[in-house]
Design goal:
The chain is an alpha/beta fold. It is built from eight helices and twelve strands.
Length: 221
Amino acid sequence: MKAKILLIEGKRADRPSFVAGLARKGYQVESAANGSEALARLKEVAPDLIIVNAASMRSSGRRICQSIRSRARGVQIVLIMDGQSSESEEKNGLPADVVLKLPFTLQKLMNRIRPLLPAEQKDLLTAGPLQLDLTQRWVRIGSRQASLTPRLVHLLKLLMEHPGAVIEREKLFRTVWDTAYTEDTRTLDVHISWLRRAIEEDPRSPVYIKTVRGVGYRLDV
């Protein structure tokens, strides 16, 4: 079953509605006509994502997003604004994870919300704060998300499957590169540095991917 989306959307006839389009894509769509109704239904709905269609309510969406953020911490918010919204509204910073300005297609909306939604369990590997999507090939930690090459996915998957365990360099290299030759594993070090750039706040002082000198690498979560 696909993710559950809470869509806050008014009734302006001159602005597009996204309820039917999202439902056709297979998502469970729960709708609310305004911010008050959405806040009242948050606990009941328990959404994976919240979309605020401010353009349909003749609103900037700021207050609605702020109220939702205070009540649903950790839930991603997408804000849809009217294309005529002022630059001052944007410069002041909006309390949403993604901001889209009309007009745009349903496909563009889909492209923007997919990375924010939980993947199907069979495709999603989790270890501590790390989430790795094996199909879409991205890693997420907190609010940061990065795309990975297939080899980096394979390497991180191996580390995430053995959290806290030291995996020898030769084993990592032999498994990920599918080779019996392990005399020169410097390319492994390069790929580890790329992974650190993707998930560490400071790659030079890694918190998650630790080097165990003379042995290999360990994922601390």
